[in-house]
């Protein structure tokens, strides 16, 4: 059933990735791809990667919790769960013996880099790294309060310094997570100043690269080769700044972020996580 015209949803309803209204109670029903995958497994046949990907997308789409205010059920991003579960387990294992600590501290960076490679290759947005950073800070602060402070080797000054550092870190993180300056996609034209002249080359971006000469001074005497060279140089500069994904002309230092699927100002200072 499609969404109502007013767009209101009850706390357990949501719009799935097919654009249809669904309910949390129906999460275990009507999954054709999962039925097909199970049927092929029972018959001893291989399951295609496309089918597995569709099943995974369906599971991710149906993992939701009830929510109020007419917005419907909220989707749960399960990428925040691995750090919450694995980090305490690994740290307790590492505390048992020095060799276990060496193994854990060596394997964790490798696993994190592997996960980064997988998500970056699929161009997907994940909360794994944000969850890992926040939970690491919170868990270390918790261990300091429960394990270090009771032993009496620290005082109120140490606790104050650690608390201030934690608060400042969270404030800096909040500043970093603000809008990095996404370039609006309605920018359909760009103007490039001609080098050494007062002439402007204007480009109309109607699904094609077009160059139009404007405001040429009649007293300026250019031969055909100089004019063609200037046009070619300006056109090359324009094509270099043109984003084929967003269909916009990008200003200097900006670039297209594959993870965010948008052009970002000052891409060199942009962090997708």
From TrEMBL:
<dbReference type="GO" id="GO:0005794">
    <property type="term" value="C:Golgi apparatus"/>
</dbReference>
<keyword id="KW-0449">Lipoprotein</keyword>
<comment type="similarity">
    <text>Belongs to the DHHC palmitoyltransferase family.</text>
</comment>
<keyword id="KW-0808">Transferase</keyword>
<keyword id="KW-1133">Transmembrane helix</keyword>
<feature type="domain" description="Palmitoyltransferase DHHC">
    <location>
        <begin position="239"/>
        <end position="273"/>
    </location>
</feature>
<dbReference type="GO" id="GO:0006612">
    <property type="term" value="P:protein targeting to membrane"/>
</dbReference>
<dbReference type="GO" id="GO:0019706">
    <property type="term" value="F:protein-cysteine S-palmitoyltransferase activity"/>
</dbReference>
<dbReference type="InterPro" id="IPR001594">
    <property type="entry name" value="Palmitoyltrfase_DHHC"/>
</dbReference>
<keyword id="KW-0564">Palmitate</keyword>
<feature type="transmembrane region" description="Helical">
    <location>
        <begin position="89"/>
        <end position="115"/>
    </location>
</feature>
<keyword id="KW-0333">Golgi apparatus</keyword>
<dbReference type="InterPro" id="IPR039859">
    <property type="entry name" value="PFA4/ZDH16/20/ERF2-like"/>
</dbReference>
<dbReference type="GO" id="GO:0005783">
    <property type="term" value="C:endoplasmic reticulum"/>
</dbReference>
<feature type="transmembrane region" description="Helical">
    <location>
        <begin position="127"/>
        <end position="144"/>
    </location>
</feature>
<keyword id="KW-0472">Membrane</keyword>
<dbReference type="Pfam" id="PF01529">
    <property type="entry name" value="DHHC"/>
</dbReference>
<keyword id="KW-0012">Acyltransferase</keyword>
<feature type="transmembrane region" description="Helical">
    <location>
        <begin position="156"/>
        <end position="176"/>
    </location>
</feature>
<keyword id="KW-0812">Transmembrane</keyword>
<protein>
    <recommendedName>
        <fullName>Palmitoyltransferase</fullName>
        <ecNumber>2.3.1.225</ecNumber>
    </recommendedName>
</protein>
């Amino acid at each position: 059933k499609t969404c109502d015209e007013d767009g209101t949803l009850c706390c357990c309803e949501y719009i799935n990735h097919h654009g249809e209204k669904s309910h949390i109670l129906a999460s275990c029903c009507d999954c054709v791809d999962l039925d097909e995958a199970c049927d092929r497994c029972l018959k001893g046949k291989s399951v295609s990667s496309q089918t597995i990907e569709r099943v995974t997308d369906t599971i991710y789409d149906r993992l939701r919790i009830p929510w109020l205010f007419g917005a419907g059920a909220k989707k749960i991003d399960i990428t925040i769960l691995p750090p919450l579960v694995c980090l305490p387990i690994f740290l307790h294992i590492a505390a048992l013996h020095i060799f276990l600590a060496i193994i854990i501290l060596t394997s964790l960076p490798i696993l994190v880099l592997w996960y980064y490679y997988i998500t970056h290759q699929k161009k997907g947005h994940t909360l794994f790294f944000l969850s890992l950073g926040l939970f690491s800070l919170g868990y270390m602060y918790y261990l300091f309060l429960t394990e270090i402070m009771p032993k009496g080797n620290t005082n109120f000054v140490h606790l104050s310094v650690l608390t201030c550092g934690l608060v400042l870190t969270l404030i800096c993180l909040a500043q970093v997570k603000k809008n990095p300056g996404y370039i609006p996609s309605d920018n359909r034209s760009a103007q490039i100043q001609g080098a050494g002249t007062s002439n402007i080359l204007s480009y109309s971006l109607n699904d094609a690269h077009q160059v139009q000469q404007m405001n040429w001074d009649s007293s300026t005497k250019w031969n055909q080769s100089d004019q063609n060279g200037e046009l070619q140089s300006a056109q090359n500069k324009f094509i270099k700044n043109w984003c084929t994904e967003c269909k916009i002309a990008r200003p200097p230092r900006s670039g297209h972020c594959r993870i965010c699927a948008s052009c970002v100002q000052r891409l060199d200072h942009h962090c997708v996580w």
